């Protein structure tokens, strides 16, 4: 199999910079995710690995070999595109077999390989059917089978679950994790869905406006985001961010005052007294009565019962809307005043100017 490495790679289309000094490394046999919103440069990154685009600057390595000038057919990389294009006039077997026929493999090897990957993806029953009869999940599996059937060094999956319904997407997450374990190949997939990235990847690259903001294991990105971009991108609902002023060991806004004496050492590194306070919805509590300190008066704006939890939206006196994870099946009274209590051991503090984490 193979590792993949980017060293200061930049790519532009006309006067639009898509990637800017992008550097990262994917380990051999790693299940790696590139996470970012539409337009972040995810697909361009995958195309650069596949050789479908050429870098303007920087170097790309596959298994230690610089491949900038190596044509796609010599890179031994397979890419599944978001559009899931299948040959409409070929049945499932022939769609999967196509890459092997292009390589001129003998028929016995083709049959063995197609049946092996079909068993792996549980699609033996549709090999003799045409794509127009496939369900969304079956189309997904056939496209994936075609990508992995010739066992390339690197498998690239561009938004692999974006075109299927929500329930099937959950099932396919499990299938992709199982597949990654069983085939033992380097897999790089892109997505805009943080839940997909968190649930499947061994490591995640957070890409935003063509720049790498953080690379790490899902728990690392969740527990210690390096900046506000990562903080907002990881977590569902995402982290709440509130602008505050720091003075005399306290963070204050028009809504609340929080004692942060324990973080004085870290706050001393800030470029000014303007601080962004971050707290995750699950680390907050709604109380009927005000606690002695470190709380804010809020009003219930809306709530959504979600079974094991309730997503509550509250508004502050400044009109900001914050997310809170409330108790399951509790009915909250609209516009009711309550108190929002903070767990000081789980807050995050960011420098407002640089947007980078202090603690």
Task: Explain how this protein is built.
The protein is of the alpha+beta class and 359 residues long. The chain contains nine helices and 20 strands. The chain has helices at residues 42-50, 92-102, 107-121, 136-148, 166-183, 194-200, 218-223, 228-233, 264-267, and strands at 4-13, 16-26, 31-35, 57-62, 65-66, 77-80, 154-158, 186-191, 203-208, 211-216, 240-247, 250-252, 257-259, 274-279, 284-287, 295-305, 310-315, 321-326, 337-342, 348-351. The strands form four sheets. It has a six-stranded mixed β-sheet with strand order 6-7-8-3-9-10, with helices on both faces. It has a five-stranded antiparallel β-sheet with strand order 13-12-11-14-20. β12 (250-252) and β13 (257-259) form a beta hairpin. α2 packs across α3, α2 (92-102) runs parallel beside α4 (136-148) and α3 crosses α4. The longest helix has 18 residues, at 166-183. 37% of the residues are buried. The model has no long low-confidence stretch (mean pLDDT 93).
Rg calculated over all Cα atoms? 24 Å
In terms of quaternary structure, the protein is single chain
| SSE sequence, one letter per element | EEEHEEEHHHEHEHEEHHEEEHEEEEEEE
- Dominant shape: globular
Could you tell me the number of beta strands? Answer: 20
Tally the helices: 9
Mean pLDDT figure? 93
> What are the segments in which pLDDT stays under 50 over at least 5 consecutive residues?
none
Structural class: alpha+beta
Portion of residues in beta strands equals 25-35%
Largest sheet: 6 strands, mixed
Q: What is the percent of helical residues?
A: 10-25%
Distance between the termini: 39 Å
Strand order of the largest sheet: 6-7-8-3-9-10
């Amino acid at each position: 199999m193979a590792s993949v490495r980017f060293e200061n790679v930049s790519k532009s289309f006309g006067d639009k910079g898509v990637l800017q000094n992008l550097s990262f490394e994917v380990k051999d046999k790693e299940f790696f995710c590139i996470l970012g919103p539409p337009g972040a440069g995810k697909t361009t990154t995958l195309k650069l690995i596949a050789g479908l685009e050429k870098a303007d600057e920087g170097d790309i390595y596959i298994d230690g070999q610089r491949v900038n000038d190596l044509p796609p057919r010599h890179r031994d990389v397979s890419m599944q595109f978001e559009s899931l294009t299948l040959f409409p006039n070929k049945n499932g077997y022939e769609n999967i077999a196509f890459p092997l026929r292009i390589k001129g493999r003998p028929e016995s090897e083709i049959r063995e390989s197609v049946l092996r990957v079909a068993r792996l993806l549980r699609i033996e029953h549709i090999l003799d059917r045409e794509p127009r009869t496939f369900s969304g999940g079956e189309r997904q599996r056939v496209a994936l089978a075609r990508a992995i059937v010739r066992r390339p060094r690197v498998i690239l999956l561009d938004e692999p679950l974006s075109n299927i319904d929500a329930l099937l997407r959950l099932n396919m997450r499990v299938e992709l994790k199982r597949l990654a374990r069983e085939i033992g190949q380097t897999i790089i997939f892109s997505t805009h869905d943080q839940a997909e990235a968190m649930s499947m990847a061994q490591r995640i690259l957070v890409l935003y406006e063509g720049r790498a903001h953080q690379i790490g294991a899902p728990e690392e990105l969740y527990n210690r985001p390096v900046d506000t971009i990562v903080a907002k991108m990881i977590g569902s609902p995402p982290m709440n961010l509130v602008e505050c002023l720091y003075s005399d060991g306290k963070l204050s806004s028009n809504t609340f005052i929080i004692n942060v004496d324990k973080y004085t050492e870290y706050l001393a590194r800030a470029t000014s007294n303007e601080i962004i306070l971050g707290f995750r919805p699950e680390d907050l509590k709604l109380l009927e009565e005000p606690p002695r300190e470190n709380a804010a008066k809020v009003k219930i704006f809306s709530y959504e019962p979600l079974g094991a939890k309730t997503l509550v939206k509250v508004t502050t006196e400044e009109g900001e809307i914050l997310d809170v994870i409330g108790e399951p099946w509790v009915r909250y009274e609209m516009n009711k005043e309550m108190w929002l209590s903070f767990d000081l051991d789980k807050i995050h503090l960011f420098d407002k100017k640089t947007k980078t984490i202090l603690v």
